[in-house]
Amino acid sequence: MLPEDTPDINEPQIEFSQPAFSLEDLPDLEPFETPREIVNRYFNEEFADTLKPAADYGRLYPYAGSNSSRYGLVDARGRIVVDPFYGEAYYAEPANGGEPEYLVLAYPVDEEEQKLWRVTGGGILLRRFAFAAADGSWLSDTFYGIGARLSEGRIIIHDYDNPQDANKQRVFRIYDLKGQLIAQGEGELSGFQEGLSVVWHFIRNEQNGKYQEYYDYIDKNGNVVIPGPFLEAEGFANGFANVVIVENERRVIDTQGNTRRRSRPGEIRYDTFGEYICFTEYAANTRCGILDKNGDVIIDLQYNEIRPSIETGSTLMVGMKEDGSYWIIDPQRGEESKIELAGVHINHADILGNNWCEVSYVRDPGNGELINGFALLKDRHEYRFDSDEEPKSCSNIQGDLFAISTQNRLVNYTEIFDAAIGKVIRHWDDFYFSHKLNDVMLVFSTFNGSRQLVFDTDLKPAFSTDDLGGGHIKNIQYLADDIYSIRTTFYSGLIKENGQWLIRVYANNMD
User: Fold this and answer.
1) Beta-carbon neighbour count of residue 163 at 10 Å?
2) Closest by CA position to 432, among listed 467, 391, 487
3) Model-level pTM greater than 0.85?
């Protein structure tokens, strides 16, 4: 039985305010031949190479314009800074999981701008890029290249030395955030990690026509600090990186290029798991163990594989031994405990949110029909979920709450299970838990994917497109602060966390 206060997804709709701005009545904005006056515009910028938004805009947000092929920018009040003009507009990946600090903007490539880009026989495009800081200020003039990215306070632009050359040797340029050129050279950068970037060199041997690739490392000033050459190389994490020096011989180096001393023979590899390092040695048999950041052994080499938690905030890991057994590993305490479930065969195990362990298993009821199921384990708690005819899946929502979804030919539904008390506290027909937008919003989708609902982490409806006048939600994405890009049956645009439209465009202008 469900609690009496269980909310219904069909409960009365929430009232939301009108949009701060709407594109519904705007004329066709293309082509961009000259600047045009738009009554609802708040800022008076022009579509020109000298476009320089002021520093007092506040954070800018990208929104899709006509045909979803052009993007504009608005401020947090929904006032347009730039009409749908850019071919791409998106936030650069935030550092350390925080709020994004920069926008990457790509100028459109069309017939009017043939002189600003090149096409080679391989279909290589030279494009224009710009970057805006979170406060809305432009970082510099535009950059030209085939790709652009931000990495540890550096702008990386890639291009080709000679686009007409069949060799197509790629080159890079490194700028600071003021747009000043710092360094340039041949190769492709993977992006800076702990101040160093792998450089991939790809060259053609003129004598035999074969291509050769090798790797080395540079710092953020473009200096080669670990020359290699390496046959393979990975980015640094916790001071170490995996490289291949000669064929089939893997090594681990530090940021000075020194090979880490090994205590045992055989190849070795390090993979960082948050605060810890999983080290794998390849000798007669592959074995894994765990180190701390100082390189001290916490868990010795005894596992075929070690996997960290798939959820942020969990501290446990799962290890698998050669005999097929699964173990829960606590690297903080250096403890290991074997996973044992009576009467079943364990197929798989993962650590979910709040250090709950999900164990997939097969049970034989004795009638010749095997039954698949899973269990949730933590401390002395054990909950099993299986059925003769109802396949189930499990997703952690937050803390001790799990979405248990059931789908078969007759019925589809999702129940919210509170593992702390061992009870189902919510039930929704036809919906399953899809994903988290951020730490506040949860998205539930119909099993056929035709509709989505958005709830807050208290499992209360945050907003729906019925309230927004937009029909079904087709897609929703968290941008920054409390603003989301959204596409519904009738509208696309940006909304705030309370469901207020910042800006919206008719869907028939998007398709």
Assistant:
1) 16
2) 391
3) no
